[in-house]
């Protein structure tokens, strides 16, 4: 059947409160995601499907599983078949970033994710937190990662509340050229 959808399985992780749910809901064009939106922390995991047509007009779906930051020990249960990983870091919370870096390095070293494409999202990059960007990258040792790793993460800056970075993220998720067979 040619209307069967191709699925791109994606994992979305990062420390609690880093903005994963807000980002993924906004990516789905959900209504009411603005400064009045107050998401509840994700208990366990959530699935977000992004439906779209690829450039050959074929229906595709990016299936993104968010693992709540509180449940970080569950990550290893959801690695099978993952082709892309969105790792969300809260730019406004520098205190959390060293811990985030350890989580990121653990995932990058995970044997089951060696072929996965990593997308590192600096979230909450609205005007108030923009000046913390460089410190955040320094604490993540992003330059070193980019030089040393074959599967170095793609860096994106996003603020779901203002819409910054959403198109770039959508592009990275739907781009099948970055998927290793
Ligand atoms: N200023 C600002 N706040 C944001 C932005 N994105 C998310 N937030 C806020 O950050 C808080 C946490 O957002 P969530 O989306 O629940 O974070 P999460 O990563 O899903 O958290 P867990 O599910 O607990 O791991 C909420 O109060 C959001 O309103 C943003 O772009 N800018
Ligand atoms: Mg969440």
TrEMBL record:
This is ADP-ribosylation factor-like protein 16. Mg(2+) binds at residues 21, 42. InterPro entries: P-loop_NTPase (IPR027417), Small_GTPase_ARF/SAR (IPR006689). Signal peptide: none annotated. GO terms for molecular function: GTP binding; GTPase activity; metal ion binding. Pfam families: Arf (PF00025). GTP binds at residues 14-21, 69. SMART domains: ARF (SM00177). Keywords: GTP-binding, Magnesium, Metal-binding, Nucleotide-binding. PROSITE patterns: ARF.
């Amino acid at each position: 059947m040619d209307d069967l959808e191709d699925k791109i399985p994606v994992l979305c992780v990062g420390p609690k409160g880093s903005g994963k749910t807000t980002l993924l809901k906004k990516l789905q064009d959900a209504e009411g995601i603005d400064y009045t939106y107050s998401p509840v922390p994700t208990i366990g995991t959530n699935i977000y499907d992004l439906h779209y047509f690829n450039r050959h007009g074929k229906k595709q779906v990016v299936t993104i599983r968010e693992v709540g930051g509180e449940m970080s020990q569950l990550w290893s249960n959801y690695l099978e078949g993952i082709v892309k990983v969105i790792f969300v870091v809260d730019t406004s919370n520098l205190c959390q970033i060293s811990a985030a870096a350890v989580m990121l390095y653990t995932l990058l070293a995970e044997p089951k994710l060696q072929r996965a494409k990593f997308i590192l999202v600096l979230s909450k990059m609205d005007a108030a937190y923009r000046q913390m960007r460089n410190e955040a990258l320094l604490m993540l040792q992003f330059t070193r990662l980019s030089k040393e790793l074959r599967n170095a993460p793609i860096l994106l800056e996003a603020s779901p509340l203002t819409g910054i970075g959403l198109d770039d993220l959508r592009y990275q998720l739907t781009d099948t050229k970055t998927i290793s067979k």
